[in-house]
UniProtKB/TrEMBL annotation:
Gene3D superfamilies tied to this protein: 3.40.50.360, NADPH-cytochrome p450 Reductase, Chain A, domain 3, Nucleotide-binding domain of ferredoxin-NADP reductase (FNR) module, Translation factors
Assigned keywords, A-Z: FAD, Flavoprotein, FMN, NADP, Oxidoreductase
Record SUPFAM superfamilies: Ferredoxin reductase-like, C-terminal NADP-linked domain (SSF52343), Flavoproteins (SSF52218), Riboflavin synthase domain-like (SSF63380)
Cofactor(s) required for function per UniProt: FAD; FMN
Single annotated GO MF: FMN binding
Organism: Pinguiococcus pyrenoidosus
GO cellular component, one term: cytosol
Name of the protein in question: NADPH-dependent diflavin oxidoreductase 1
Lineage start: Eukaryota, Sar, Stramenopiles, Ochrophyta, Pinguiophyceae
Limits of the FAD-binding FR-type domain: 225-481
Start and end residues of each Flavodoxin-like domain: 17-168
InterPro entries in the record: CysJ-like_FAD-binding, FAD-bd_FR_type, Flavdoxin-like, Flavodoxin/NO_synth, Flavoprot_Pyr_Nucl_cyt_Rdtase, Flavoprotein-like_sf, FNR_nucleotide-bd, NADPH_Cyt_P450_Rdtase_alpha
Amino acid sequence: AQTLLSGGMAERNRARLLVLYGSQTGTAQDLAHTLRRRAQSLNLQAAAYALDDLDAEMLPALARSASAVVWIVATAGAGEAPSNMQRGWKALRRRRLAADLFEGCRMAVLGLGDTTYEKFNAAARRLGRRLEQLGAAALEGVARLTLANEQAAEGVYGTFEGWAKDVLRVVAARHATPEMTEEELQQSARQEALSLSLAFAGAGAESDVGGFYEKPYGDLTPFGNEPALGTVAVNRRITADDWIQETRHIEIALPPGNWDFHGGDVAVVFPENSAEIVRRFGQLLLDSAGFPPEVETREKRLAMVISVAESDAQTAPPEWPTMKMQLPRCCSLADFAKRFLDLAGTPTRSFFERLWPWAENEDEKDKLKELASPEGYDLLLDYCIRERRSHLDVLEEFRSVRPPLMALLKLVPTIIPREFSLAGGAPCSADVNSAHLCVGVVRQKTPYGRTHVGLCSGYLASSPPGSSVRLFIRASQMRLPELANGSLHDRSPAHVPPLLCVGPGTGIAPMRALLRERLAMVEKFQEGDGTESPFAKKHFALIFGCRKRTMDFYYQEEWADVLEKHSSWFYMPEPAFSRDTERKVYVTDRILEHSTRQLIWEFLGLRRGSLYISGTSKGMPQDVAASVKQVAIDTGGMSAEEATAWLKRLEKEGRYIVEAW
């Protein structure tokens, strides 16, 4: 936890901008630091922090010491706060907080969302309401709450640009110092990128990478803040070899420990760059200054072990906390390239904003500046986003951009771990000490014929049995209903709630995990003392959909086996195969079939069961919800308004949960 230090009075009359963010995939963090840098270019004092980087008790005093406080907040999962603001958000929700906690503080919130998700900007909406309840005033000339939409013409960036201009205009009005010239901007950008200091420990020295893994933001293992080092036990393709989509079933053996997770939870995987990416990075190092003269080859430079430290380059007020990058303590450059630098990631506008000051060629500088500008959005879209060019591609193509090593390590963002719903492996199932994943490999052709492979899905797909994978396990809202609100043993057999699972495509993963956990419970009761099993009555229904029976019917043999042995309590209609017949059939069609419709109403309307939906966010969850509402109307006799209110009540009671991506 950071502590608020007392600072001198010399800087107290300068306008101060405090930027707080909650980021899941890195976009909110990127925009927060973009705003911070732009404020500094206006000679304002500014700093950006993830909410959980700060001690919640110091937040009110920190906010009062700022001229303005702005929040940039994404939404994670089913409307949850992002991982790096969950602790702080929990503290802000405490009922005992005073209604004037933020009295005198001027605040504005920017939410980053996507209208294809049902919980569009839910975290930002809740935050905006809560800040107002705690006495925060609006920032003059800026809306209290602004909601950016990824589906807009310029994505969230278009909204950010207008919002950021308004924020900086209002804050800068309190401070008359003129903004920096281009030369001063270039010097400032170089100075920030050079805030790393390196020491060469030499080739063959031992790496100590622990510093990179010290902030899991609540994603824990039995080993505290360190991710577990699992071992791939199974890696097999579960789509036909000649099918367009490669999907793999992967089982990762976890090291011994007191693991505590359930079906429905999420594996947080730290991917690594390929050997080819590392080799290409090593080639760039040949043009980087600062190496000892005897370290002249690519191989020697990659083998060099460096220790890294960072000075404060945020130009924050002296009494504000100083935040450092999350870095390995000591690491070879090959490990840096393999584990930490997001060399294969697609650059954002801010990357070009930080890159152009290093260009020596004027034409390259002009193109980089255009890519960094709001006016250059179409160029950014064509050159970078649609073509899926990577940070490494850009550095290779702009040959006059050759910053020294310490700047290069800071310019390229760090790899963000990826999340996968577990497809099995809970300790209380038969899969003790393992994490099962169902991974659809991202592989696509760009408009100009380049092949793009997703970093994490490609990494996992190419990890043979015996290889190591770093991961955490994160709790999810999805639980077997009797575990969501207490122990199974606290309930009589008649009150085990039924569960309806809808999981097309790789959305089948958490449903498989929940079913395997249920199977373990059923076996446990069958081995008991002969008392009535709470699972005798039909209570678990699974609706699955894919394109073709012979191509991507995931886990087909498993479902057949469960149906054969446990048809008394398990129900699975014919999967919805959308490409096997002229008429496309989807999971929503299966929901509305007579026999399934009757069972759904029995589960959800009469027996207080739960509805879990998992899979793509592109309209599927909303379509499933609409079909379930139609069941309530046709079979339950509700009006349309009553059916809508009923589904909202299911959600409020934790009986309607969506995991979509």
